[in-house]
What does this fold into?
Amino acid sequence: MTKELEQSQQESSTTFNGTVALIGLFGGLFWSVIGYVAFYLNFARVGPALALMPWALGDWKNGWLGQLVGILFIAVVSIPVAFLYRMIFAKINKPWPGLLFGLSLWVVIFWVFNPMFPGLKSLQQLDLNTIITTICLYLVYGLFIGYSISYEYHERTAHESEAIQS
It folds into this structure.
């Protein structure tokens, strides 16, 4: 009986890791597409191609191809970001940690790592629309990643506790 329970927990943990990776991938994909729409409609002066600025060479990254590759890059980078959230906040099933996480990511990208991004103006030089739009995008991105992971974590622990009691 205990060996069966251990195997079930190991499979559940592996599946949870896969779920976290998918949440990160789709969260990054979805919210970076929304970020591109905001960029395209001139709500923000920076689009998803911003993520490529420190590494990619050439002017191609400033066009639609750069935005598309930036979307894909953000989707892939969102996987370890989701695992970071899992390590820190997964046990808290409330929206506030996700919002805090998203705001923290915004501060890291737009304030701390600002010198790494040559196409990004300093925070004082960014227009208010860009600041508000990007903060909102990072908030909902963090909320999506955070609440999805926390919800899944609590659903799995509730299911496991029911299995143990049965």
Notes: Residues 16-165 form one domain. The chain has one domain: 16-165. The first helix runs from residue 2 to 40. The chain has a mean pLDDT of 89.
